[in-house]
Backbone:
């Protein structure tokens, strides 16, 4: 039999195979993008046109589920923008800060030493760190029942003034006789971290000579109750103003015992 005759015999099969493939494809398109979305949309209370548009990707959402309504607005972790002028200003003496600080003394003390250990000591804290936290309270990046209202009542100049004021105050004196014995595993977390859990050394950012982010707060001489509460807030995600989720990532891997011990370490240890 000649090749031409073979092709002639095979032609009907090729035609029917092509028709079958095209039919299956057409059915899939009609069923997947028309029939199924309309049926699903009817069950979800969505009109046929919207359901089909969602199925083909013209409109957002699923044809089987109503698009959830949300009024949430995307917010940055912080709205602070560091500049050379701002950093230079924060490093200067700001006499007006003493007047602004009068609104702070009830909780943070006349000289930045809080009588209530639930509140942070501001004395000796970095002016940059104080500025960032006040700015975050003002913008809503960090929320507190009292501090939010206070910060929102300050303009940027007053925030700079009060930050520089408390940064110039002397740290609280520690009584070496009350220091507790430090657990070796806590010292390791502070000095070397725990690579097995992806935990960096605390002092890589918070140490006195560390090269961490400029807004990193000083932990030494801070109140233990305040430190523990903030670590737990980072761990649960209740506090979110840490840039790049640095502290949330760290705190989420700490046990409650480690949090309490780390807070005690920084609150009572003289050499850090």
Residues:
């Amino acid at each position: 039999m000649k090749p031409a005759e073979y092709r002639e015999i095979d032609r009907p099969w090729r035609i029917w195979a092509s028709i079958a493939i095209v039919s299956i494809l057409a059915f899939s398109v009609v069923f997947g993008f028309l029939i199924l979305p309309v049926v699903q949309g009817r069950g979800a209370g969505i009109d046929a046109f919207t359901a089909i548009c969602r199925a083909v990707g013209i409109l957002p959402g699923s044809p089987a589920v109503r698009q959830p309504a949300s009024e949430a607005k995307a917010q940055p972790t912080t709205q602070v923008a560091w500049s050379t002028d701002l950093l230079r200003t924060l490093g200067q003496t700001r006499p007006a800060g003493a007047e602004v600080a009068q609104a702070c003394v009830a909780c943070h003390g006349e000289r930045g030493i809080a009588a209530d250990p639930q509140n942070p000591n501001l004395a000796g804290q970095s002016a940059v760190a104080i500025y960032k936290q006040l700015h975050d309270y003002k913008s809503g990046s960090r929320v507190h029942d009292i501090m939010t209202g206070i910060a929102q009542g300050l303009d940027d100049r007053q925030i700079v003034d009060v930050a520089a004021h408390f940064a110039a105050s002397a740290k609280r004196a520690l009584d070496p006789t009350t220091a507790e014995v430090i657990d070796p595993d806590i010292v390791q977390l502070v000095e070397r971290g725990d690579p097995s859990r992806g935990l960096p050394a605390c002092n890589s950012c918070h140490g006195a000579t560390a090269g961490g982010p400029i807004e990193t707060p000083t932990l030494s001489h801070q109140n233990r109750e305040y430190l523990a509460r903030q670590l737990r807030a980072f761990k649960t995600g209740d506090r979110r103003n840490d840039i790049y989720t640095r502290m949330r990532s760290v705190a989420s891997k700490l046990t409650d015992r480690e949090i309490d011990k780390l807070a005690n370490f920084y609150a009572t240890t003289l050499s850090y």
Summary: The CA atoms of residues 25 and 31 lie 10 Å apart. DSSP finds 13 helices and no strands in the chain. The chain has a mean pLDDT of 86. The domain at 174-272 is CATH 1.10.760.10 (Cytochrome Bc1 Complex; Chain D, domain 2).
